[in-house]
Amino acid sequence: xxxxxxxxxxxxxxxxxxxxxxxxxxxxxxxxxxxxxxxxxxxxxxxxxxxxxxxxxxxxxxxxxxxxxxxxxxxxxxxxxxxxxxxxxxxxxxxxxxxxxxxxxxxxxxxxxxxxxxxxxxxxxxxxxxxxxxxxxxxxxxxxxxxxxxxxxxxxxxxxxxxxxxxxxxxxxxxxxxxxxxxxxxxxxxxxxxxxxxxxxxxxxxxxxxxxxxxxxxxxxxxxxxxxxxxxxxxxxxxxxxxxxxxxxxxxxxxxxxxxxxxxxxxxxxxxxxxxxxxxxxxxxxxxxxxxxxxxxxxxxxxxxxxxxxxxxxxxxxxxxxxxxxxxxxxxxxxxxxxxxxxxxxxxxxxxxxxxxxxxxxxxxxxxxxxxxxxxxxxxxxxxxxxxxxxxxxxxxxxxxxxxxxxxxxxxxxxxxxxxxxxxxxxxxxxxxxxxxxxxxxxxxxxxxxxxxxxxxxxxxxxxxxxxxxxxxxxxxxxxxxxxxxxxxxxxxxxxxxxxxxxxxxxxxxxxxxxxxxxxxxxxxxxxxxxxxxxxx
Length: 537
Prior knowledge:
There is one protein chain. The chain is of the alpha/beta class. Helices cover 41% and strands 13% of the residues. A 6-stranded mixed sheet has the order 10-11-12-13-15-14. Strands 2-1-3-5-7 form a 5-stranded parallel sheet. The chain has a two-stranded parallel sheet with strand order 4-6.
């Protein structure tokens, strides 16, 4: 099946795809507000959509916020300056609360590939292959499909899409891995750019996580744009490079994408050499490489945290570690398979906590941990939009930013979410529980009770011993109280009352009454006559 045929097939299958195409065809003269993610996939997607809107005659405003999700206040700020007909949210998650944005702008279009968080925003037009079931792809390929469906696709769009797919790990030409949704496009486009995807022996990039012997020029360009854009993690060099003092680095990266010279490049040097601002781009990339070498040494301190269904779970903790997610992805290769690597980065009180998740197994869904940790902290501390997190099964991010939440609070809440999702067990007694359960069916504890791992095992052992001792005491007391086991036979005690009845009034004794019996004489009294009746000697 050709790529064109594939796009036509998907157009019939996907209502969101079809509605987005219809809106775009009628966009001439309309005011469009476009928000997109600040990583390579988001930037290339934004560039493709911008090119479509420009060709179709739309009045377009572009914004590249640093957060993953799009917060309401950002839209409201833009609306103070200008009214818009269509809001595009590209590669910035698919959130249930995006439904509210339709009250601000008539048409809201979500172009995304991340799993749904919350309820489906039904008032929006949603073009997302990962709703309802996760589909491995990128936003760039979705934007390319839109360009193809409308008949505006050009070679620059294809080059941008290759960079976006590579930047979001949806293709790996060095090991022949291609996301199924991107395969028709890749098979066709690889013939246009054979040198880009040809395997070469060169310095391994951040993308060589399964092997370190071969790479491609496309991989090198993908890493280069991670450096230029900050990779979606805001690793900027404004303080180190004077030329960036009054310029946003991510906007510079976006501008270079729009100005790319389309060519089947044979090397990264050739690619950089044909850029209009090659000197500044080269300085940014060199800063990136220097930081990479420094951070790589720190990851030797990663420690084994746990084992889940045969997968080793490692944890790394650092302070102001540059390029942490990217360096961690390479460390994952060194740690073996199957492995989950959870990386904590304390960025100071001003910038908060950044947690990055990387895995080469599906034993633990990293994106679920990141998104549920976000929901948990937001419900407890507020700061919706400032605290953010989510992602894919094997790669996810979480940030607290300027919320002011301490590292200890984040670690505490993380452990609760980790036990519930990864372990599916109670953190007090370690009994297996249903993933949606709020309480343990064995001990009754909340599933998300926070107890450190080793302490939990100690507490759980003591708890079980006390629990069974308590059962023995209760059972023994019942036997003694109800059947008189181990007690004197009252019919020989000189009292006229029947066993189990008050010797004064004849009232049947309760279980508590039996516990209060006078052991000296063997008499039995109900609660009304205990201590208030004189007994003849």
